[in-house]
Structures are given as structure tokens and as C-alpha cells.
Amino acid sequence: MIGLTVPQISLAGLLFLAAGYALVGSIRLIPGKAALAQDLFQALLSMTIVAGSLLALFLLGTGALVPALLLLAGRAGFEAAHVRLGPNMAAAGGAVGLALSLATMLWPVLALVFAGGWCLLLARFVMVPAPRDSKLWKWVELLLFPLIPAAILSWAALNPDLRPTILITYILIETFDSYALVAGKMFGKTKAFPVLSPRKTIEGLFGGAVCLVLTALVAALVLGLPMAASVAAACVIGAFAIGGDLAASRLKRAAGVKDYPVVLPKQGGILDILDSWIAAGAALGMALFLLGGG
After folding, report:
1. Tell me: the pLDDT tens digits for 218-238?
2. Would you say residue 249 has pLDDT above 60?
3. Of 25, 57, 69, 227, which has the highest C-beta tally within 10 A?
4. What is the pLDDT of residues 98-109, one digit of tens each?
5. CA dist., res. 189 & res. 177, Å (int)
6. How many CB atoms sit inside 10 A of residue 127's CB?
7. Phi and psi of 258, rounded to 5°?
8. Distance CA 147, CA 77 (A)
9. Looking at residue 2, what DSSP letter applies?
């Protein structure tokens, strides 16, 4: 769809990682910022492990992606159910997440069915007041995020026409998150979401958004892509990245839990690491498919 191959996108991802290390190194040179640079370096190191693993999976192809995506969906369901329904229901959440993703892999048309169901559930959840503490409503919350989006992401990542876009989505999300983290730590003062995500600041999000748009513009110029479409895609990715992050945070706040079960130190659980990609990848993949891009 975008005229780029997975190896080309993976190389771009590695260049972005190298730029990140260069940025952290430059921060270390600023007087009084050595501690901040060290903290950012630790976070970047953990992110490199995740990014490197994901790039390798995409390079290896379908045979590696299928089990990885099933594991992602199962783990996301496990973590979400663990905090929202309790540890005794975590395995059930994981099983549902795995089953939904497997279903879209075996019968791709179900991705459209799930997308339609997701829209109906979201409308029902937002527009119709109802008690939200029942087990049924908690399952609705899990279906809204992360179960259905993870299933749609699995379908999109295995669609040959959409796969490069899904990988680019991940790279742009990491770009947004990384620069938002740096801007937030250096300039952040005003909390953007005091209840759902107290550590996010308006200054940090603004810095991340500016860098995300600039990255999209530079990529469009270098690769000969339509600039308007590239910026629009970056804005959509940024919006859904924030939405996915807030959706994951909301589950924790609703359950009165601080953290998801940890997978990697400094990164947290799968829903701390890939929450934005699950939301943005699913949304962009389905949107492009419906618009005739996949």
C-alpha cells in the first residue's frame, strides 16, 4: 500500500533507535541532566529489546508472526482480566483474547464482524447509562479494549497489504512516546490526564506530537510519499496511541490497581508496552482496508 517493504521499514526503525541513543547522549552533555539521561537510557534500552524483537518477527514473516500475535493477544487478555476481574479470571481473559485472534487468522472476514461489534459496544457503553460494576459490564470493557482491538491487529498484521503499515504504525508510536517522554521529563509541568494517567503532561504530549508530525514529514520527503496523507496518518496514529494508553490506564484505575503484571522491568506488562500499538494498529488497519488500501 505504501510502496515500502518490511526490510526497508525495519532499517528505518533501527535508524530511529540510533537517533534515540544520540538524543540521550546529547542530553547527558547538558549540565545537571546526567541523572535524567541515565533514566532515559534505561527506558530506551528496554524499548530497544521490545522494538528489536518486533522488527525481527516482522522480518521472519508469517511463520513467526502467527504465534507471536497469538501470544500478544493472550497475554493482553490475561493482564486485562487480571486487574479488572481478578487473578482467578486472568486465564479466562487470556483464553478469550487468544481465541478471538485465532478466529481472525482462520476466517479474516471476522475482523469486519468484530469491528462492527466493537462500534456497537462502544456506542452502547458511552451513550446508555448502566451499572458498570457487574461482571457482564467488566467483560464488555475488556472486549472494547484490549480483546477486540488485539484480534483486529492480528488480522491486519497478517494481511500482506497492511503489514508494512502496521509496522510503520509501531515505529511512529515509539517515536511519539519517546519524544513525549523526553519533553515531559524536561519541560512537563501541567498534567494532561490527572486521573487516568497522572504522569502525562500537556508539554510532553505536545512535544511528542510535534516530533511525530516532523518525522512523518521527513519520511514523506525522503521516500516520496504524499505529505498530506503522511501527516494525516501520523495524527490518526497519535490520537489512537493516546486513546489506547488511556484505555489501558482506565482498566487499572477502575480496578484500583497500579500496575499490570510485569513482563519487562522499566516497561511493565504487555498492556504497558504495546497498548497504543494495539489500539492504533487495529484502527488504522481497519480504516485503510475499508477505504480500499488493503
Report:
1. 888 877 778 888 888 889 889
2. yes
3. 69
4. 999 999 999 999
5. 17
6. 7
7. -85, -40
8. 6
9. -
